Amino acid sequence: MNEYLLTIRNIVTLWLLCLGTSSLWAQTLEVKGRVTDDSNQPLMGVSVVVKGTTQGVSTDMEGNYTLANVPRGATLEISYIGMITQKIAVNGRSLINVQMKDENQQLDEVVVVGYGTQKKSSMTAAVSSVSAKEVQKQVTANVASALQGRTPGVEILQRGGIAGAEVNIVVRGAGSFGATAPLYVIDGAIADGLDALNPSDIESIEILKDGSAAAIYGSRAANGVVLVTTKNGKSGKTIVEVDASYSYQTPSKMLDMMNAEQWRTFANQVADNSPAYDRAPQNVNPTDPNRSTDWQDLYYRNAPMSSFNASVSGGGENSTFNTSLGYVRQEGIIIKSEYDKYNARINSTFKKGRFSLTEKLSIANTKKVAPPSVRTLEMPTIPVTDENGRYISTAASKGYSITNSNISNPLAAIYKQDAFTRNTSATGSLSGAFKLMKGLQYKLNVAGTYVNTNTYKHTPAYNTFFNPDGTPDAKLNQTGRTSLSEGRAEHFNYTIDNLLTFNRTFQKKHHFDVLLGTSWMRDFYRKNSISSGVNDLGAPTVKTYNGEGVVGSNQLNSALLSFFGRLNYDYNNKYLLSLSLRRDESSKFAKGHRVGYFPSASVGWNIHSEPWFDTELLSKLKVRASYGELGANFIDPYTFLNLAYGPVPAIFGSSRQYGYVTRFAQQDLTWETSITSNAAIEVGVLNNMLTFTAEYFIKRNNNLLAPLESLPSSGQTITINKGAVPNYNTASVENKGLEFSLEFRKKWDDFTLNFQTNLTYMQNKVLALGEGVQPIRGELMSAKFNDRPTITKEGLPIGTFWGYKVVGINDQGDFLYQAKDGTAKLAKQLKEDDKQVIGNPTPDFTFGYNLNLNYKNWDFTAFFQGVAGNEIFNAEKYDLYFNYNSNAPVDALNSWTPTNRNTKLPIAKTDNYNGGNALPSTFYIEDGSYLRLKNVQIGYTFPETLLKKIGGLRSLRIYGSAQNLFTLTNYSLYDPEVSSNALFNKGIDGLEANAPAINARVYNMGLKLTF
């Protein structure tokens, strides 16, 4: 019996032991998986560790890992340099694949700010981030144009048609009568712009918009700051990427102009209304009566554009590298317009113990060929060439033009001239950091930019001919002697920054981020130029100067010494505080005015972090406010000294030289200042599936430099040679507005949707010009109505359109204008004080919409951009309707006649040419609002299962896109996006002899390979 009981006991014990063993065995398992980046590329060297233990492995070359004996309830901690550390609960799973995200892609993303980074959740300033991926989807020769409509509060304009055209960026409205461009900082180096950048090299773009965000840059940041960070390599397997695309550009719009027969009818109508001129039935091409010249078709063209980018990146445990090459070739839609850009970059990082080193260097070479500015809407009756291929023009009294004027041949001017601008630039930075102790780090940063610009313009002597009715050939126009001008400019700046940072969290609640620094900046600019007649020796590259010439030389040097500090504090990620102060000392001012102090303060409250805030609907609720002061020194370095000028021709081989004072010393000039107040609310709904931000700002710019007509002390009127007028710190301008941004993102299995939109409402007003400052008028348009159509005065926006208001047409077909007393008067009865505000070139609203859709391997993007509430002064209407030596639109045939009184066009007569109905007025004002499909793209990424059959190929994506596919607008000319480099001429289309701007419609195909 006892043996039986013993046997039973042993069986039970063995059963319990097996049960315990199996239970223990069931509590652990083997976990496998694959780790990839956000492009589904495998990551090598990723650390996969069981949290709270030393048990872990690293992924292999294919991103695979295997972990044995992992407890079912464990948590895996996956980490990789430059990416967000992820913590994933095992929950009994044996297969766990992980997709890593860059640090700047997290919901609480890290945003680049001045001299460092900051978590978005703890930010209290106005900073906008632009996705580098969205920028890279757009085919462009200039990165800046791809920023248009991407972020609120930023206005971007580009003059279309010319290959490689400049792009103007204005952040929260113009705040100076001088420079309006923001400060560009690329990897810590001050740059002149973004045109030399390769879009494929960009990691992130941030725009600092308010005083609190930009105050750390002090006197250089009054117009905002654009920060660009380029890509570093990543540890792991070396990755090779190749991106190539080909584009086809076409003019987005052409005007409906008269043919030769229609123009003859119109010309005779003008002659009938102008007794001093004869009817001109011969005004059809005498060499070919049936031929009509379409100058638009000859001036604009379809043009190709191609780009190629290649990069190699990788690294080991302690170092990374990223190198790239890029090439862009663009032919503009305007004939003889070309742009070539070559890029090379090498970025590297090294880390050893407490020491780290980062190097970034880029080199770019660009060549831009732009045709001379000519009138492109000549009469259709003028042939381009005769039967011998010689360029034809018209002569006075030959019967071609209504007013018997010489009419040049624009194609002759374009094709005969040889001109280009070549830029070679280098931008680099070298940064070394040493960790002194936990949270305390010293960093030395040396950065600089060098730009060498060479200009060349050669115009040979040439003749144009006219052969009236078979008479012997006769030379008509001769350009005179061959002319040649050359110039070379060098711009070099460097900055040395010493930075001490302290970043620690105490008691898990008190987080301090402190920055102390000094900065030393030097800026050098030198320019030499020469222009003269030349002896043409028969070879295109062999020429000698002759006769009188003009030699120019200019050199400008400046320095800036700065001390600055910043404190960021947050309590338990709830209560946020940021304080900064910068002291700048500039060599541009006279002694006693060189130092400026620029403080800022901002606060924030993450309401959603409060323990009492418990709602599933709102995942984020934050309010913030800021105040900041900035400065600007937009003056030449030697303004406090007398300036002598000597443009008098110098005889080569003699010593005849003299000059005269053109600008008196201005010892009292000081900093322009910008004071910005900002308040915002940020909302996140349903785990930030929907996010919304609303922001209100007021930016007041004081002490702006304005031209004085009289000396402040005595009121004495002064006259200076060359029309120079001194500037003093007297003016004040205000910009205020609202900014809204909204984003929705959602994923359903294989389908992902992301929608973003932004809207800005802004008003600009001149608060004061100052005692002795007269209203500032824009450019004199002497070749048109010999007047200035803009005015800048107190109470109005900068560059307000100023002219006469058309109220009707009288019984003789002439415009009637509203006089100051309210009566209707003819042009000859008007006075200067009858002018009034007729339009505003600054939009009330700017906006953008971006839609991204992904379904399995397909991706689709549509981006819309537009403006509303602004006017355009269409000065081209003068040549179209009142200059009878050029062609006219077909609707000019609807001009007023005794039998056609129901029209908005006045009588067509030559008196209009000399004033009359052509005065600057509301006739030229048009609505500048538009909505444009800026970019639409569809792409396909081939599945990995297919690519595995192709050795070495990791990823293959093909895509097609179209830009400027359509524009909804009421504007009558080519394009409502009217750009001007001159602030007081903003919104004027058709300045002088320049051809109107026109954006190209672009069709693109490309592919991206990853090895």
Describe this structure in words.
With 1011 residues, this protein is mostly beta strands. Among the domains are: 2-101, Immunoglobulin-like, CATH 2.60.40.1120; 105-234, Ferric Hydroxamate Uptake Protein, Chain A, domain 1. It is 7% helix and 48% strand. The strands form eleven sheets. The chain has a 22-stranded antiparallel barrel. The relative contact order is 0.11.
Low-confidence stretches: 4-8, 11-26, 468-473, 537-543, 710-723
Percent range for helical residues?
under 10%
Decide which structural class fits the backbone.
mainly beta
Number of strands: 54
Tally of alpha and pi helices? 8
Shape: globular
Main beta-sheet strand count, sense and barrel state: 22 strands, antiparallel, barrel
| Arithmetic mean of pLDDT | 84
| Gyration radius over CA | 34 Å
Topology (SSEs and partners):
Layout: H1 2-26, E1 28-36, E2 47-50, E3 56-58, E4 64-71, E5 75-79, E6 86-89, E7 98-99, E8 110-113, E9 116-119, E10 127-130, H2 132-136, E11 154-158, E12 167-171, E13 183-186, E14 189-191, E15 202-208, H3 211-214, E16 225-230, E17 236-251, H4 260-272, H5 295-299, E18 303-315, E19 319-331, E20 338-352, E21 355-369, H6 410-416, E22 418-437, E23 440-459, E24 463-466, E25 474-478, E26 483-506, E27 510-536, E28 543-571, E29 575-586, E30 595-606, E31 618-632, E32 643-645, E33 650-651, E34 660-663, E35 672-685, E36 690-707, E37 727-748, E38 751-768, E39 776-777, E40 790-792, E41 800-803, E42 806-809, E43 815-818, E44 824-825, E45 836-839, E46 845-855, E47 858-868, E48 871-874, H7 876-882, E49 925-927, E50 930-941, H8 944-947, E51 955-963, E52 967-969, E53 988-989, E54 1000-1010
Parallel strand pairs: 1-7, 13-16, 48-53
Antiparallel strand pairs: 1-4, 2-3, 2-5, 5-6, 8-9, 10-15, 11-12, 13-14, 15-16, 17-18, 17-54, 18-19, 19-20, 20-21, 21-22, 22-23, 23-26, 24-25, 26-27, 27-28, 28-29, 28-33, 29-30, 30-31, 31-35, 32-34, 35-36, 36-37, 37-38, 38-46, 39-40, 40-41, 41-45, 42-43, 43-44, 46-47, 47-50, 48-49, 50-51, 50-52, ...
